[in-house]
Amino acid sequence: MRKAFTMSEVLLTLGIIGVVASLTLPNLASGIQNKVLQTRLKRTYSELNQIATQFYAENEISFSEWASRQSVNDYARKFMSYFNGGRQVSTYTYADGDADVSAKMPYVIRNLGGIRSSTIICDDGGFWANNSGELFFFNNPPLSGENGPVFCVDLNGMQRPNTWGKDIFVFQFTQDGLVIPMGQEHKTNPKENAMGWEQQFFFTGQERCSPYADHPEKNVACAFYALQDVNPKNEKQSYWGDFVR
Hints:
The chain is of the alpha+beta class. 34% of the residues lie in helices and 10% in strands. It has a six-stranded antiparallel β-sheet. The radius of gyration is 22 Å and the shape is globular. The termini are far apart. The mean pLDDT is 84.
């Protein structure tokens, strides 16, 4: 006759299962979320270049050159017209945050290490949403003959994690009719623009995609690494599998 389990054995087994679950479930959930975000990033990047190509075909001028003659709100409105349900959901700009920028942003955004972001890169044209759940925010128009504008995308809108390098990434239109991720070198990106600003957004390396970032500028190149799925600390490792947790 088979001996039944004792109550202490059952409790011990349940305890072991509970410990294993507590250790593995968070990693499993994080892995699933990262896979979803990676897929959305690839899809969004493809859509952005389709828009750039379509705009050039319709207007015989790159979006970058056209935007240099527009206000930030005008180019943002035109850009969002290519999406279903494109609409402005917040008029926030850097000027609204005189005392505490982060307190007046539409939602809390964090740097990769979890520190609340006190500012944002794309802080001139408000926040715009589309029916796919993405959120876009914009920087000033470029000068004529330069790449731009710079813009940011939150892949899942105001849903968490709301973090640079996880679901928020930075892109730029180019003079030759493309959209490129920050961190990617490009033939029409100078080291300095006409106003003397260094194009630090396009530097790669750990310091431009860092889990210790205390400012979003130190997370801008994550767009490049995330699309390549390359760990900025070790090019033989995965961005989504080894770098982002």
